[in-house]
Structure formats: structure tokens, C-alpha cells
Amino acid sequence: MSSATPVRVRLLEHPTDQEIEEATALAARAFPWDNASIAMTGNNPSLKPHIFGMQFGAARVAGRMYVVSPQDSDKILATGLWFGPGTTMMRTEEQRAAGFNQFLELLDPETRNWWLKEYPEALKIADDAYGKDGMLNNWYANLIATDPEHQGKGYGTLMVQAGMKRAVEDGKFAALATISQELVDWYTHLGFTQIAEAWITGPKTTPIRFWATWLRCDKPKDHV
Ligand SMILES: CC(C)(COP(=O)(O)OP(=O)(O)OC[C@H]1O[C@@H](n2cnc3c(N)ncnc32)[C@H](O)[C@@H]1OP(=O)(O)O)[C@@H](O)C(=O)NCCC(=O)NCCS
């Protein structure tokens, strides 16, 4: 792992529309068109950027948006969204009004119903795994992504560490979900432990299945 260009981690206290657009486009390039994307959009690739845009919108309201940029410019090379104790993503109407509600309007009725009923039901396993209010009272990462052109340079690690460090300072744990064994291995290397897993089935019109797993980190590994 090497980083040719010196970079810095920035916490965007008040992300601009332009920064959110740039980060949304980055996430849409970084995340593959996989079973989860197919399920979440009702197999509509044009809706893929909305999955990320609504998360940045919610983070602007109530979360923390970290980015990696070169020392000499504000270009976004990687990004990480963390939600701290006292809130979780899409918990409030104000967060949902920043993109989620608009996304729902674009979906076919079955996929919309899946987001509102079946998906939240499937996610209850995570609430149980983190313990009562565990997700609410700790630091939770909802989106970590590095521009495909800049992967393998340690930037994703910086985005994970941003939240892990904050969790340690607060005496909290860091938590997140992921959907592949390769990513579980990467997060394990950074200090996370798998605590739950589930197969989630998409909407009735797109009944594709994807694997999801939840992890937590109580103490980052010394080597990262
Ligand atoms: C996951 C992701 C954020 C990683 O970003 P990144 O900037 O490449 O991450 P880093 O450079 O900090 O870490 C990757 C490096 O960690 C090391 N690494 C990866 N897995 C490892 C493991 N199991 N054990 C030890 N080291 C490992 C490797 O050196 C790897 O570099 P390489 O790809 O050149 O071999 C990026 O691949 C991405 O955006 N993926 C698509 C979006 C996504 O899936 N996000 C996570 C959702 S939960």
C-alpha cells in the first residue's frame, strides 16, 4: 500500500451541494452494481446514485462527512459517513427529507414497500446484535468509498479510522455493515469483529438475495 500524493483527512462540517454531488458520483463509481444495488433500486441502474446521494443528504443533517483530499486541492479521493451517539441514519424526518423521501417517490410500488416494511424488518437482526440502543449510542459508518482510480493507497483505511478514533475518544464502539467476505477480511484487518449476518431478499418484483453482515470494533488494531 503506497500513497504517492500527500493527502489530508477533512471533516466537512457544512458540506456544500457541490461537495455532496462530487462524493455521490465517487460512491456511484466505487460501488459495484451488485445484488444489493439491484434489490434496493428494483433493478433500475439509473437510481443507483440516489442510494448514495440520500446518505450524504442525511449526513449533512445529522452525521459526519469525512473526505480524503490531496494536500494542494479540495478534490475528493475518498469519503466516509459516520453517525454518532444519539442518532442513526434516516432516524428523523429531517434526515429523510434530505433525499430518502425523494428516492422513494422514484421507486416502483413494490420496491418502495420493501424499503418501508420488509427491509427494516430484516435489519432488526442488527439492532439485536449491537444490544439495546447499541447502534444508537455508538459510532456507525454508513458509507465508506474510495475513487476506483485511487484505491489501494490507504485512503479507505483513513476513512474507517476517522470514526474509529472518534469512537475510542468517546469510549464507544465503532460499527458498520458490509456485504462481502473480502470486505469482512479488510475490516477484520482493521480491528473489527463480525457479530451477525443475514440473507436479505429484495422486493417481490426483484426477489434477488444479498448477504449482509454486521461488525463492531472496540479497539482498533495497533498496526493500522
Ligand atoms: C473498500 C474500499 C473503501 C477500500 O478503499 P481503499 O482506499 O482501497 O482501502 P485501503 O487502501 O485503505 O485498503 C486496501 C488495502 O488494504 C490491504 N488489505 C485489503 N484486505 C486486506 C486484508 N484482508 N488483510 C490485510 N490487508 C488487506 C491491501 O493492501 C489493500 O490494498 P490493495 O487493494 O492494493 O491490495 C474500496 O475498495 C471501495 O470503495 N470499494 C467499493 C465500495 C465499498 O464496498 N465500500 C465498503 C462498503 S462496506
Automatic annotation (TrEMBL):
Record-annotated N-acetyltransferase domain positions: 63-220
One Pfam family cited in the UniProt record for this chain: Acetyltransf_7
MF terms (GO), sorted A to Z: acyltransferase activity, transferring groups other than amino-acyl groups
CDD domains: NAT_SF
Protein name: GNAT family N-acetyltransferase
Organism encoding this protein: Phanerochaete sordida
